[in-house]
Write a structure and sequence with these properties.
The protein has five helices and six strands. It is α/β, with parallel strands linked by helices. It folds into two domains: 59 residues, 2-Layer Sandwich (Double Stranded RNA Binding Domain); 83 residues, Arc Repressor Mutant, subunit A (Orthogonal Bundle). A four-stranded mixed beta sheet has the order 3-2-1-4, with helices on one face. The protein has a two-stranded parallel ribbon with strand order 5-6. β1 and β2 form a beta hairpin. α2 packs across α3 and α3 crosses α4. The chain is globular, with a radius of gyration of 15 Å.
């Protein structure tokens, strides 16, 4: 069974999804790839996992780094999971480029080179926005590029973290 919860953020509506125990999705309403990890019709309800996520989001949007991460369950490809793990390692208030992530993946896989564009595709399909901080991934020239929730939201999230 899949469950969902609506959260009103300073940047607009957010839909949070869960399998009942862990987060499986968190999207700005209407963003690109919205709900792409939902396998079935989701039931709107309140669950303990949603209260944890809401508390995390409230702390985050107050301009403070949350001191915990709600349980997360990803159902994705090994490549996207590897990219997700690297995104989770980017500290609050910092950024990393698509190319830097590609270099880390290449090193992990023992290959000479990994495409930054492939990394960009994985980043754009991040099913748990903000908590898995895809907004902290920027272009090689420091440019603010590619955010499924919209560039305006990416800029505001980075400003909130004082990363810009």
């Amino acid at each position: 069974m899949t469950y969902k919860y609506s959260y009103s953020s300073p940047l607009g509506g957010i839909t949070i999804a869960s399998d009942g125990n862990a987060l499986i999705g968190l999207w700005f309403d209407g963003q690109k790839y919205f709900g792409d990890t939902l396998k079935s019709e989701a039931i709107e309800c309140d669950l303990p996992i949603f209260r944890l996520a809401v508390k995390w989001l409230d702390v985050y949007f107050s301009g403070t780094e949350p001191d915990y991460v709600p349980p997360i369950r990803l159902s994705t490809t090994p490549f996207r999971e590897a990219v997700s793990n690297i995104m989770r390692s980017i500290p609050y208030g910092y950024t990393m480029t698509y190319g830097e992530i590609a270099d880390i993946i290449a090193k992990q896989r023992g290959i000479k080179r990994m495409s930054a564009q492939a990394v960009g595709g994985a980043v754009s399909h991040n099913p748990i926005s903000i908590i898995i901080p895809c907004h902290r991934v920027i272009g090689s020239d420091g440019g603010i590029t590619g955010y499924a929730g919209g560039i305006d939201k990416k800029i505001r999230l980075l400003e909130l973290e004082k990363a810009l």
